[in-house]
Amino acid sequence: MFRARYRSSIAFALLFAIAMAYFEAAVVVYLRQLYYPDGFSFPLRIAPTKIIVIELIRELSTLVILVAVAAVAAKRFWERFGYFVMIFGVWDIFFYVWLKATTNWPSSLLEWDVLFLLPVPWIGPVIAPVLVALMMAVAGFLIIRLFALGYTFRPTSLGWLLAILGTAAILYSFMRDTDAGLRGQMPQPYLYYMLIIGLMLYIAGFIHCYRRSRGGGSL
């Protein structure tokens, strides 16, 4: 059972993530109205340098905000990490929920989107970041749950290795098509198998670390 402070902290963290997602979605609605008045689609239109710089700083600012909220929610590093990835995952999922509610986009989870801009634009079908976000939200919640139950999350060497490999696979699936991201060309087919490999590596690594943190117990 969660102690009252954990229930309260999680509830407020989720409320923040959902509200923050609306702010992010609103900004995207305004940008698309300016640059894609007939509806967002690829190939991408190259925005002025000033706008690109503002967007890069906005994305960095969003990450800073998420880190700051996680730092306030908890005191220990891995507990803060749990809050961060949970908030990040819920925020990303509700970002698309709000876009759908306000603009009826995407028409399906297979619609392509620009996911992030650093160090190069990340592109891919909406289902890809949603699956990653879902995994993050669940993993973050389970890490917080560990601390609520009196345990400490302890990543292992194998867990780190699987996480690094999973990160590389997922990032490659998002960033490999630099022509579509930087040169205004149509995207190449998305490498779903790289996404699946990355998610499987992450899930395997997390389960391993979670079980070790609980002394070999089950999820």
Can you walk me through this structure?
- The chain is mainly alpha-helical.
- It has one domain.
- Helix content is 69%, strand content 4%.
- It contains seven helices and two strands, in the order H-H-H-E-E-H-H-H-H.
- The chain has helices at 4-35, 49-73, 77-103, 127-148, 157-175, 178-182, 192-213; strands at residues 112-116, 122-125.
- It has a two-stranded antiparallel sheet.
- The chain is globular and about 55 Å long.
- The relative contact order is 0.13.
- The mean pLDDT is 93.
Distance between the termini: 14 Å
Instruction: Let me know the largest β-sheet.
Output: 2 strands, antiparallel
In terms of structural class, how would the helical and strand content be classed? Answer: mainly alpha
Total domain units: 1
Order of helices and strands: HHHEEHHHH
Shape: globular
Measured by DSSP, the beta-strand proportion falls in under 5%
- Uncertain residue ranges: none
User: Can you list the strand order of the major beta sheet?
Assistant: 1-2
- Overall helicity: 55-70%
Number of strands: 2
Number of helices: 7
Can you give the mean pLDDT? 93
Radius of gyration: 18 Å
Give a brief outline of the structure.
The chain is mainly alpha-helical. It has helices at residues 4-35, 49-73, 77-103, 127-148, 157-175, 178-182, 192-213, and strands spanning 112-116, 122-125.
